[in-house]
Fold this sequence. Notes:
This protein is mainly β and 289 residues long.
Amino acid sequence: LLVLFVSCECAAAATVHHIFEVGYFSANPDGHETAWFMGINGGVVGPEVRVRRGDNLIVKVVNACPTEEVTIHWHGFEMRNAQEYDGAMGITMCSIKPRQSFVYDFVVDEAPGTYQYHEHAHLEHVASRALFGPLIVEEPMGTPRIWSYDQEAVLTLSDYSTHSPHGDEFNRIGRLVRPASVSAVGNVVGVLDFHNILINGRGGFNVFGTSPSLNISGLEELTPKVGETWRLRLINAGILFAMRFRIDGHRLRVIQSDAADVQEYPCDAVTLSSGERFDVLVTFDQDPG
């Protein structure tokens, strides 16, 4: 008698906990001037949320603001069987009132890839404030990688304004014209004020000028070794402006777009519209410098 036993080892789902406290704080992310932020846990970018498919994600959002309502939307998530936690105020849920809290509690049922979360009660505030963060769904435990790389990094790009959202609203109520942002070739590209682009909440002001001088130590840094291949998870967390990303002297190899696998293709740069994500591979094959 021959008895065959088939053993199936399934990765156990985890429960991932986060606490988001939304409140006011001041910061100077690009060395130009200190501004007031309405953000999460006192950071110019919210904390990274990293889960696997099947995990139970529990996020307690504490609204510490005295007057503003908030919600959190999981951008790119289809929220199957969990629409009540989608976070679109007035559509899928009510807002979290000032001095109140709410617990998002759902099972992640999304393809592995790069996503983001952001506040969804006042979309015009997201661009200039810290109400957003990276949301990563990793491959199931034990699943071999489709792509080969040595390290990975998440780069959250955001458009940044030193103007208070309330100041913009006062201008609107007073029927004052918001300053239009103009591109390098003179085209009007937005009606919201544009001050700078930040990478992971850090940037440099007046990069091509002489005053004030650029503080290199204040910039986001990657420290790859020669010959290493890195996976860069690029996120445009802004609300209005498209952004173009490139690395001097290197080619990018696109492997995912909005968490969907694509046939790998090389390019010199990628352009990300608001809310868009690209995953690229970069081999650092140039001399150190």
